[in-house]
Amino acid sequence: MDSVLAQAPAFFSAGNIAFVLAALWRTIAMTAIGCSLGFVFGLGIAILRRSTIGWLAPARWLAALYVETFRRVPFLVILIMALFALQPVAPQLSLLAIATIAVTLVATAFLSETIRGGLDSVPRQQWEGAAALNFGAWHTLVRVMLPQAMRVILPPASAFVVMFVKDTSLASHLGVVELTFSGKILVNRGFSPVLGFGVILVLYFALSWPLSIAAARLEKRLAAPRHR
Amino acid sequence: MRHLDIADLHAGYGSQQILHGVSLSVDRGEVLSLIGPSGSGKSTLLRTLIGLTQPSAGTVSVGGEAVDYARKADLARLRDRMTIVFQQYNLFQNMTVLGNVTVTPVKIRKRPAAEVEARARALLDRVGMGDKCDAYPENLSGGQQQRVAIARALALDPEILLLDEVTSALDPERVGEVLAVIRELAGEGITMLIVSHEMAFVREVSTRVAMMDAGRVVEVGTPAQIFENPTEARTRDFTARIFRH
Ligand SMILES: Nc1ncnc2c1ncn2[C@@H]1O[C@H](COP(=O)(O)OP(=O)(O)OP(=O)(O)O)[C@@H](O)[C@H]1O
Ligand SMILES: [Mg+2]
What we know:
The complex is a heterodimer.
Chain A: H1 2-11, H2 14-50, H3 57-72, H4 75-89, H5 95-120, H6 124-132, H7 137-167, H8 179-188, H9 193-223
Helix pairs in contact in A: 2-5, 2-8, 3-5, 4-5, 5-7, 6-7, 7-9, 8-9
Chain B: E1 4-13, E2 16-26, E3 31-35, H1 42-49, E4 55-62, E5 65-66, H2 72-81, E6 82-85, H3 97-108, H4 113-126, H5 142-154, E7 160-164, H6 172-187, E8 191-195, H7 199-205, E9 208-213, E10 216-221, H8 223-228, H9 233-244
Parallel strand pairs in B: 3-8, 3-9, 6-7, 7-8
Antiparallel strand pairs in B: 1-2, 1-4, 4-5, 9-10
Helix pairs in contact in B: 3-4, 3-5, 4-5
The complex binds adenosine-5'-triphosphate (ATP) and magnesium ion.
Adenosine-5'-triphosphate is lined by residues 13, 18, 38-44, 87 of chain B.
């Protein structure tokens, strides 16, 4: 404990703080960009898989194959696959960008299933009503389907994102200096693991706790009409 | 020229045929009621007219223009002129009562919001729902939702209004109110197709009555003809059975 206290001034140097904050930023970027893009692409896949247009059948089949594969392969494997697949064709991509693409690939697969379940939960009367009132596909989606589906989508989707904040630590295997890796580097430089990983632990908590609270707030707001 | 002309219409769900050649002609401002046993295809006929169920054969013309249900432009034009009040109301659960009535005129037809809202409030008053503008559908009774659905349809100024079991969830005193609204609308020249099990209501409000059975119109006539002097045995059986209840 004494050694921890003695090390503290050196540990919390401006250089180290900037180093850890940069790593924190990479963790946030991978999660936020990857999961946001995953939501958008996942929505696309969910809509595709719900469509009944005949000539889209092969696309639906491919989408199902994609979703089932990427939900079953460990994230680390997807990270490594992304690295080997992307580096030769796009050498200018940074490791962070490649890791973010890997997050997007996995988030797309998981969130598409969550979104599909949400859209399926909206009774057919809702979109038939919209169709009879001349709503096009876009208006039906954003004014009727999504607002109602969100109640079902949000709890599992936010749980996924909160979980995935932690999983992005696997990007360290690619050499991305994200939060976990930054702690490891500091410990390797001779700082106490209690200090190095203690700070990392606090930062992970500080990241996922507000996320959970924000999600819970949003869930409440969406459920509100029932109780007004 | 008839306002709505339905000729030999066939439709169903998947491989199951429900309508086996329905033919009906309705004049402008007419109130035509569809009666018939449960499952005879009354709702399916209205759903087919508004383009939710694809017809497999036959023609529908509005104001002399044939509607091609496979063409998006035709469907959109049709739904600008014709609207439906569903048997299950189909109000949008994520919108308030006022939102349900204003969303289509404002967001789809791009009309000025203030004007639409004033009109919507007036229509909701007319159906006795003026004090529930900010309520959500799931907190309303069936009869209240039905009246909101009527206001939502009227806000679109339809030429042709399809009403499916529009009195089924109303309490007796409300039936009178809705009846009055429908009479006014008929007076304004709106053509109506009404599905109802409420024979007293049908008799009051209709210019003509069509009896449906097993996916066909078996008899059409004035209310007096259908209720007092039906030519078809099926019509006689049906009205006798329903009046006894
Ligand atoms: N969405 C659907 N999918 C498959 N079959 C359906 C669907 N809707 C109705 N049917 C079937 O079509 C037939 C006719 O139903 P429809 O709802 O048109 O009858 P209806 O005359 O309106 O009856 P009711 O008086 O009970 O409302 C019934 O056998 C019903 O089971
Ligand atoms: Mg019906």
